[in-house]
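Example is below:
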Amino acid sequence: MEPVRGASQGGGGAEALLRELEALVQGAVTASSWWERRGVDCAILALSLLALPAGFLCLRSENVLVFAIGITILGVCHYTLTVKGSHLATHGALTESKRWSKIWVLFFVEVCTAFTAEYAKQGHVKMHHGYTNVVGLGDSSTWRLPCLNRYVYMFLAPLSLPIITPLVAVERLRKVELRTALRTLALISLGLYSHYWLLLNVSGFKSPSSALVCMFLTRSLLAHPYLHVNIFQHIGLPMFSRDTKPRRIHMMSLGVLNLPRLPVLDWAFGHSLISCHVEHHLFPKLSDNMCLKVKPVVSQFLHEKQLPYNEDSYLSRLRLFLSRYEELMVQAPPITELVGLQ
């Protein structure tokens, strides 16, 4: 047990702080246009879809540079649709319409990502966001693989994500209704086969094996930062037990970390997963662009109230995890006790 002395506010004070912050953020949202609230992110996703034909056509070229550009276009577009698109859709941040929200979740999560919509919502929205850094619930423990050493995990394991993702999805279909399982299988198959068919018929690949290798390359292009970001922003920060977890504003300010802005990752993963992760955990229904807009409001508020606002660089976190891998990724995390907050 690691005691940490927090702010002097008890439960009522913490709730009052959160309401005050919510009012400030709501004011910024109300004053924003539709373009700022949703349009910017919808445009990025639309551009990613529109760029796909150029990527597939570049793969027809025998020029190595043009071919590499095609791989890059398809890889970045793939991660923009699967990470940014799925993340925003799962949180209902793309539209106010419940019907269209469900459609976008199925498209981005099942067709593009080859995962299950139900488990994306259950694991990410309900567990990770509802119990951020609570051991055994939302502590990012699903990303731990103690059987692997630090270099295999950090540099080789990410390459398995394109293969593991649909396999995990199929395994979890055993726990859902038959109708849901059939729908998910159909949509995952549609997404994977469409990618394969386009490589054969548009990009001109002559053999199934070469098309499959290309699928793997594009779907693993940003796998390393994707895995790294998922562990950098929570693991190594205070962890809580279910019985003594702090109030929401303290849980999010202590247990979440922002990385600096990184242009490629900002585009492909979204601000809410990179430089505005604290803001995203406090206000998960905001779009990436709105998280970026309210970032100064949130950071100034937390600093004024003498609450933590965790920030660190990508390379600094990478060095930390390589040097303290056993402690962070193998051993059970210590439980943090916030003195004066429970």
